[in-house]
Design brief:
Chains A, B: Keywords: ATP-binding, Kinase, Nucleotide-binding, Transferase. The structure is a homodimer. Chain A is built from 14 helices and ten strands. Chain A is of the alpha+beta class. At the A-B interface, helix 10 and helix 14 of A face helix 10 and helix 14 of B.
Chain lengths: 356, 356
Amino acid sequence: MAVDELLRSSRLSWFGTEGADSDVVISSRVRLARNLVSLPFPGRANLAQLAQIQETLDPVLAGLGAELGQPFDRIALDELTALQREVLIEKRLISEKFAEVQPHRLAYISANTRISILVNEDDHLRIQSMSPGLSLTQAFEMASRVDDYIEAHLDLAFDETMGYLTAYPTNLGTGLRASVILHLPGLVYTRNIENIVNTSPQLGLAVHPLEGIGEGAHFYKISNQLTLGYSEAEMIENLQTAAGEIAAHERRARKALSYFGKDGIEDGIWRAFGILSYARSLTEQELFALVSRVRYGIDRGIIKEVTPDCYAEIIVAARDGYLKYAAENENLSTGEISAIRASRVRAILQKYRTQG
Amino acid sequence: MAVDELLRSSRLSWFGTEGADSDVVISSRVRLARNLVSLPFPGRANLAQLAQIQETLDPVLAGLGAELGQPFDRIALDELTALQREVLIEKRLISEKFAEVQPHRLAYISANTRISILVNEDDHLRIQSMSPGLSLTQAFEMASRVDDYIEAHLDLAFDETMGYLTAYPTNLGTGLRASVILHLPGLVYTRNIENIVNTSPQLGLAVHPLEGIGEGAHFYKISNQLTLGYSEAEMIENLQTAAGEIAAHERRARKALSYFGKDGIEDGIWRAFGILSYARSLTEQELFALVSRVRYGIDRGIIKEVTPDCYAEIIVAARDGYLKYAAENENLSTGEISAIRASRVRAILQKYRTQG
C-alpha cells in the first residue's frame, strides 16, 4: 500500500540539507492555481459538478507518472483516516483546508514528494512543487512541466486580459504563489527579525513564523504578496532575490553572534543537544526549539557529533501525527507521545552520529 | 609542598560511595572539643596566651603521624592565602570560623583527610574525624584515638561533675558533636522532608540543608542537639539510629517514586545528565542541583553510563575555590569560572564513563 509508505517515510527529499544556501534556506515552493473552463469553482459547485471536475482531471493526472518519469500516489481524500490526513499536513503535502473532508477531492503526490497536486481544493487544480534550499526557479520549472502537460490535454480557464482565472482574486493573473522557508536563529537572537517582519509588506513580501510549528523553531516563511501585474519570471526572481538578501542578513547576524554573546549561545546550543540526547519526554513545541538550536550549532561548526541530516529527519519523524501513525494508535496520551518522541529523537541522533 | 597537594586533590576519602548505607548516607563526622588546663579559652586569651596554647599543643600534635601511622600536614593559618582557606572550607577540613585570620591558629590534617585538628578555634583543640557512609562508631573511635594520645601527653580541662570544659556551654560534658550528611532527593520529591525537619527537635536532633551548598543538592546534615546528660556511646548510638531511620524513609520514598511520578523524575534525571554532559557554562548552584539528580539516577539504577564515583569528584573538584586554585587565578570572573566548571565536569564524566 503506497500511501502507507508515503506516510511512514521519515524523509522528505525537498526538506533537507542540500540545495543552494542550505545553511539558511530550508526549502522553496511554487504553487499554481488552475481551473477548467465552463465548470464552477469547487466552492460553488454542486456534487455532480465536483464529480465531473474529478472525472475530467483524474485520467489526465494518471498519465503524469509516465510523463515525468516517476510514480505518483493517487489519494482519494475521503478514504483517509483523520490521522492519515494529519500526517500529510505535517509533511506539508496537503493543505489544512484540503484536509477538511469534502467529496471528490484527490491528491496526486510524486514518489519523491516534490510534487503534490490537489483536486477540488479552492481551485479545481493546485499544483505544488517543492525543492530543497533556495531553488525557486527549479521549483517553478517543475510546476510548469506539470502545468504544460495538463494544458496539453485540457482547456484551462484563461482570460487574455486577466490571465488565469482563480477562485480567489488574490491568485488572479499568473495563479502563482511562491514561498521559501528559512531558518533564522541569528536574526531572532540578535532581535533583528521584528524589523524584517515589519518592513516586508513595503517590499510586497509576507514574512511570518511558519505555521504549525512553534516560533521557537525559528522557521520563517517568506512569500510574494502580489500576483497581478508581474510576470511569473519577475515574481520568482523578486522572491529569490529577497530570500537571498534575508539569508545574507542571517549570516551576518550569525557572524556577529560568533564574536558577541558567543558563550551564552554556545552553552544553549550544547544544552539543547544534551537534552535531546538524553531526555525521556519532549513536547513537540520544546522539540522544535531544541532542534533549532542544534541545527544552528551544526551550521556554525560547533556541534560535530551528528551530521546535519538528523535535523530533517527529526522535523518529520518526531511529530505528533507521524508518531501516532507509526505506533498505529491515534489515542496515545500527550504523555505517551512525549515519551515516544524523546525515544525516537535519541534513536535518530544515534543514527546520524559521526565517527570519533 | 604538601599543603598544595592537599588543596589540589580532587578526592576526599571520607566523601565517597563506600561505607554502610552509602546509597543515602554520604559521610559521618565526630568532633571533640578539648581545652588545656590553666589557660583561658582562645576567645579570652591574649596574644601571649594564644602563642602558649599553640606552643604547648604543637609538639604533641607533631607526634600524631607516627602514632596513627599516617603523615599529617601541619598548616599555620596565617601562612595561607584567602583562596587556600576557601578551598579548605569547601572540603570541610576547616570551619568558616577557623578561617578568620587570627594569630597562632594551626590545623593538622591527616594524609587521608579523615582527621582534622584545629588549634585555637573556639576551643584550644577541636578534633574532627570523618568517615564515609553511616559510620559514626568508626569516626568516634578514630577521634578517641587522637584524644587518648593527647591526654596521655597533656592535662586537659575536665570536671568530675561537668565533664570536659568547653568555650561554649552547648559543648559542655562530653565535648562531643556528631553529624551525618545524607542525600535525600526521595524525601524532597515526595515532600516528606519538611515533616522530618520540623519534628527532629523533639527527638533531640537538628536536621538542616547542608550549609555552603544549595538546597537543590538535596544534602541534609543531621546532628545531635544535646551533649549533656548522655554518655558518648549513647549519643553516637542515638544519632546512628536516627540517621538509619531517615535513610530507611528515604529508601521508601524512592521506591514509591519508582511507581508513582516515575516518568517525570526519570526525565529530569536524564536531562540533568544531558546538561552536565554538554553544557558550556554551569553555576555552582545549578551544578549541585544537577549532580544530585544524576547521583539519584545512578543509585536508582537508571543511569549506568557513569560510575557513582564521578559524584564525589564533581562535588569536590567543580567548586569555585577549587577551580580558582587549580587555575592559579583568584580573579576569575563568574562567567569564566562557570565555563571552567562546565569543562571540568565534562572531563570528570568522561573519566568515570563505564564501558558499553
